[in-house]
Amino acid sequence: MVDDAGYEEIARAILDDETLDGGLVGCVPLSGSLETFPQADGGFAEGSVVARLARLRTDSGKPWVAVVDSGSLFDPMARALEAGGVPTFRSADRALRLFGAFIRRRLDGCG
Q1: What's the pLDDT tens digit per position in 5-53?
Q2: How many Cα atoms sit within 13 Å of 45 on the Cβ side?
């Protein structure tokens, strides 16, 4: 696993690929190499994967979603991503199904 900066770099590279119409960013929050827990004040560090993905949401012109497919211990992470404007799913299956339908509708000119 990469650290927070490497994770952002990879996600940016994928979203910058002109052959892709959107993306799904899956996070393994159990990894010790990522800052996936809030600080004592309840917020996330500026360099955390959460803050980096929220900035990427603002920077990227393509639609993409995040998946935090882990237990309730990571509810704060999922809530912070949502608050940062990142559509966040708690199940990869559900994310793929719904995001796939969204992309298909966009490609068909319906949205």
Answers
A1: 999 999 999 999 999 888 999 988 888 899 999 999 999 999 999 999 9
A2: 11
Instruction: Write the DSSP string, the chain.
Output: ---HHHHHHHHHHHHH-TT-S-EEEEE-TT-TTS--S--TTS---TTSHHHHHHHHHHH--S-EEEEE-S-GGGHHHHHHHHHTT--EES-HHHHHHHHHHHHHHHHTT--
- Token pair, residue 92, equals 């990869």
1 neighbors 29 (Cβ within 8 angstroms): no
* Its pTM surpasses 0.85: yes
